[in-house]
């Protein structure tokens, strides 16, 4: 999929101001139209879409019904779907979240989901194993794109085998250990990281020159392009050896061109991503 369709991930973030600009109602029907329009515009141009589930949750069960249709349409169009849900909890509960989003045939089936390791990467172990068995993926938040997160994510772990590493670095190492244990000959691990394109990974004690030299390779979901200020041409410098696994994720910067100019904006950004050799 990476080779054929490239690494651009188009966010499906139906902000209220975008619904209005697109001439859509602020309702579950508006979300459905918005999501289906993004899916249509991305098809054949980008390989991946990422619905931001928060916007659908605002409309309760009707929002979830709209989301189910958008997920099904994206998967039917052969787009990979990353459900941006950022779930985290004790192990048994986070596993139930994984069952909801990663079980084949489930109403909310996606190809991957985002999860939070605040309760420890170990709390995600069963969910990660479930994803691996189902041929699905998880992206664990590590160094996120929002500036408020730096204090927590750069904090130094005090005990255990990751002592002395930043929280973000420790999460990367734990995820890599899981992928190594599961290794099945696939070039990429089933679990990846969220590493924002707005941050300098050196500030987290991560050396991008070597961080990506791993087998299996680490998938990286990289939000922060466009509206948050990161530029596609900077991706090779920002991610270094991790760049082979980077998914360039952008929402508002592309969605602002919609609905009429969205397909063209996606086409142009997908070309930029290819030219940047990410
Ligand atoms: O570190 C993170 C993790 C997730 N996000 C999500 O990505 C999109 C970004 O939207 P833009 O409009 O391109 O800024 C949004 O859904 C966030 O919740 C992130 O930005 N940073």
TrEMBL record:
Gene3D superfamilies: Aldolase class I. GO terms for molecular function: orotidine-5'-phosphate decarboxylase activity. Its EC number is 4.1.1.23. InterPro entries: Aldolase_TIM, OMPdecase_type-2, OMPdeCOase_dom, RibuloseP-bd_barrel. It catalyses: orotidine 5'-phosphate + H(+) = UMP + CO2. Belongs to the OMP decarboxylase family. Type 2 subfamily. It comes from the Bacteria. Keywords: Decarboxylase, Lyase, Pyrimidine biosynthesis. CDD domains: OMP_decarboxylase_like (cd04725). It comes from Leifsonia soli. It is an enzyme of class 4 (lyase). This is Orotidine-5'-phosphate decarboxylase. GO terms for biological process: 'de novo' pyrimidine nucleobase biosynthetic process; 'de novo' UMP biosynthetic process. PANTHER family: OROTIDINE 5'-PHOSPHATE DECARBOXYLASE. Pathway: Pyrimidine metabolism; UMP biosynthesis via de novo pathway; UMP from orotate: step 2/2. Residues 7-266 form the Orotidine 5'-phosphate decarboxylase domain.
